Amino acid sequence: MEKIKLTFLGTGNAIPTKKRNHTAMLLTYKDENILIDCGEGTQRQFRIAELSPAKITRILITHWHGDHVLGLPGLFQTIAMTEYQKTLKIYGPVGTKRFIEELDKMNKIEIPLEVHEVQGKFAENSEFYLESIPMTHNCPTLAYSFVIKEKLRLEKSKIKKFKLPNSPLLKDLAQGKDIKLNGKTIKASQVTYKEPARKITFILDTRLNDNAIKIAANSNLLVCESSFSKKEESQAREYMHLTAEQAAQIAKHSKSKKLILTHISQRYEHIPKIILNEAKKVFKNSQIVNDFDIIEI
Amino acid sequence: MEKIKLTFLGTGNAIPTKKRNHTAMLLTYKDENILIDCGEGTQRQFRIAELSPAKITRILITHWHGDHVLGLPGLFQTIAMTEYQKTLKIYGPVGTKRFIEELDKMNKIEIPLEVHEVQGKFAENSEFYLESIPMTHNCPTLAYSFVIKEKLRLEKSKIKKFKLPNSPLLKDLAQGKDIKLNGKTIKASQVTYKEPARKITFILDTRLNDNAIKIAANSNLLVCESSFSKKEESQAREYMHLTAEQAAQIAKHSKSKKLILTHISQRYEHIPKIILNEAKKVFKNSQIVNDFDIIEI
Question: Inter-chain contact A48–B73, Cβ cutoff 8 Å?
Fold first, then answer.
């Protein structure tokens, strides 16, 4: 099973610290390299992580606040210095097209872009799709899921057992079609197994809301902002952010398997365990990430 | 004598590396904190250096290429989160007002700004002045000098010798006026000495040109870009940059006292001595700086 690799390039929030840069994550799956948000300094984080920005295929923007997007112009410039042959696909909430136009006016964008303001399912192919849903923040904001679809796979031992030759019939079986071989019917279900779907959800800046639970439903990995601790719950409400406990509630109610806490405020630079412990009380399988952490599923 | 402190916040060029961020320098003298250029990620460099962006009084922009200015929006945002009571003064070449307007459209600037497109001497007061001169790059570009004026100082031992009382007469002497005390003339020159002028010049992106030598004349410190080595001289000419040797020629012909090499390309990440040695052959008192180096004069 091909792994999905998630590299955390920035796990801080509005003000960067020595340890945490602004938000950015890179999801790698086969040829896809999907960047989720791009705070100031992201291109340097790529460099430090020894990753190539020229491999990026898509960028998902949760919202157009500075700490999530100010790395875009520099990233575009650096990609333009490579021999980038692709069309970079940018997805974001309403307003994204206008923002990209403004960026282009400031600093001419020298790579081919395709800009989409999205809602619901998008970028679907036979293997995966992306999905977005509106969040509750003080500007248009989206949460995203990356979903690899359930897939039928041929079971090698069974192929041997039934002495199936390497022929187009195998393809039929892999597509769930029963076949006839030497007058005998072989059911697809006899020689295949289902590789389960996998889902990663990204919930960045938002106040607690039902859509968050909806999009996160049954995620293998829920990456969620966790800007405040329980003590600052009123501030979280005022600034439209989540506490660690609320992030854990989303994980719990959405029946997610694992919760990843990010977007950590500078006030917890030396005491991130406060955040982690509050989440763990509600949802045991919680983890707080640092810049350059890698998680694979 | 109050020192001028220069903190190098970014010493790389177009593409940041693990060791070097894009260009930014902070000049501190008494209450003045003057930032020269502000590449992407500069606010985080402030944070790592444990310096406060809220103390910045002026920003000098050499030119509006991304690697010299993309840190501005984030820096403005972070300053706006402090209780910034000053009016931030921005100086730059022709086009600076338009660029600031564009930035403001993208990301509302929430601090009071005063924007000046400068030429020649500016921001002069009794203690210091700033000066700019056009360079030769592929967009409007300026080099800058910060000059502390020569100043008359009272010599304590002489004040004692002449038994001068603590009276307004001392102020007259300090201003170069001769005085009469008990019917006797005391010349200012008898009790004062001249604290010499000090000058720091900043030459960033440019091709070799006469204005560079002109503005650098008699600098105590010449901070100069040095993007290429002699081997890449044709590239330096094509991209309108300086080689280390050319930077040293400017230092030599301008009769500068010390040359500081910065804006070092990623290709010299592990071999900066190539750059330094080429400069030293022409101008012995040369030094290459790294991020977070501090130089005081």
Answer: no
